[in-house]
Amino acid sequence: MRRAVELNPDLAAAWGMLHFLHCAAGRFDEAIATAKRGLELDPFSDSSHFWTGLAYAFARRFDVARVHFLKGLEYDPHNTSCLGLLSLSFAWGGQPENALAPPCDVIGSQARGVAQAMGHVGAIYAKIGKFDDARDVLRRIQSAWKPDGGSSIWIAAIHTGLREKDAAFEWLEKAFQEHTSFLVYLKFHPLFDNLHGDPRFGALVKRIGIPD
Which CATH number do you get for residue 8? Predict the structure, then answer.
């Protein structure tokens, strides 16, 4: 990816992809810098603002992350990635009263059946204490589950939010066996904060190969 930006330093998407690698490795200052470079090159793109917001969210700078997710939604009000992470940044950033209005409702209506979007919704419900709603989302995702790497990680995320660690690790193991690509973000993603400190978490991170 560094070679890609050397070959074409004006390609915003290359900076965005490089930012994802920095996020996975916990290099948040570099992730923010590369995402901001992509944003400079393509300032009117919802994707560029999503990348930048995601870097700040991984760095636990949720107030700045929200600014970029909201800006991304100005360019595409139906961007479910921005909507989901906007809700997350409210829930994890100490503003649970704002986490559900309007992002979760919009995601639920626009992306019903899409595991990633609904997984965010369920995890956010769990984070803010709406456990019955979280379990309802969990049931819906599980009812459509297939061993294709598309939903196991999100089922695990909701169980994590509900502090059901054994179930969370059971589904994370399924995700691992399915080679779910999202697992590269496991070590630093806020959705899995409740698992930190459990020796099973460190062992799984090591098996995935996430660098120290």
Answer: 1.25.40.10
H-helix or E-strand containing 135? helix 131-143
Percentages helix, strand, coil for the chain, rounded to the nearest 5?
75, 0, 25
| Total domain count, the chain | 1
166 within domain boundaries = no
Residue 26 forms part of a structural domain: yes
- Give the Cα separation of 97 and 129 in Å (integer): 11
> Are the C-beta atoms of residues 151 and 180 closer than 8 Å to each other?
no
Distance in angstroms between the alpha carbons of the first and the last residue of the chain = 20
Place of tokens 């509900």: 162
The verdict on residue 52 lying in a domain is: yes
The whole-angstrom separation of Cα 124 and Cα 23 is 21
The pTM assigned to this predicted structure is 0.88
- In 144-201 the beta strands, taken as DSSP E runs, fall at none
- Of 115, 114, 109, 159, the residue nearest 135 (C-alpha): 159
- Residues 126 and 88: their CA atoms lie apart, in Å, by 11
pLDDT, one tens digit per residue, over 157-205 is: 999 999 999 999 999 999 999 999 999 999 999 999 999 999 999 999 9
Domain that holds residue 26: 1-71
Question: Is 8 domain-assigned?
Answer: yes
For residues 126 and 158, the answer to whether their CB atoms sit within 8 Å is yes
